[in-house]
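Question (not urgent): is this output format expected?
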Amino acid sequence: MPQRPYVLLSVAMSVDGYIDDTTPERLLLSNAADFDRVDQVRAESDAIMIGATTMRKDNPRLLVNSEERRAHREAQGLPAYPLKVTVTGSGDLDPDLKFWHHGDKKVVYCPDSVVQKIRETLGSLSDVVGTGIALDLSVMLDDLGARGVRRLMVEGGSTIHTQFLTQGLADEIHLAIAPIFVGDSTAPRFVHDGSFPGGTAHRMKVAEVQTIGDVVLVRYLPKETSGDLTS
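Got this back:
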């Protein structure tokens, strides 16, 4: 089997754990310096992923914005932009969204039952790969590994992050904490309810903490365990 990519989850959230509010406009949690850091992480990745729900809501281009970083990728023999990845269970994708019309190659992963529907909707805009009866992230990671993807950056949303974490498929979390409160229980959070490996007994290792302006970035390693705090 090909080597699966290293999976990095990237998320910005409020102090009270929300990744957005309930207004029609996207809530900008990061500052300019942290957005630039995210652009660097994108440039260092072989593929960038968002879920179809996030794509519909935010309509992102999902690009490496820095011309210098794109040139550096090309100097290394890489495409200017990483592969763009999305997943969908329903197959309801809008071909007019920005995701499909910017950057380089794209690939959609979905249950086998909606492969033909998506191919008819998107045409030549994207590869479409079925993962079996259900959407299977393990199958997706195997396929990405076969495509040469060694580092996958996952930018959300909540359902996708929850699936990676509950299935033990995430290698690293970049958690940017903004100094604001959302205070609305109907707003989306970083993760949904779920059965996380080890439950509350599992304390992740903290790889790094840094301040970026008024944002605090914490790098967690979900598969590694911190020391016993009771000793």
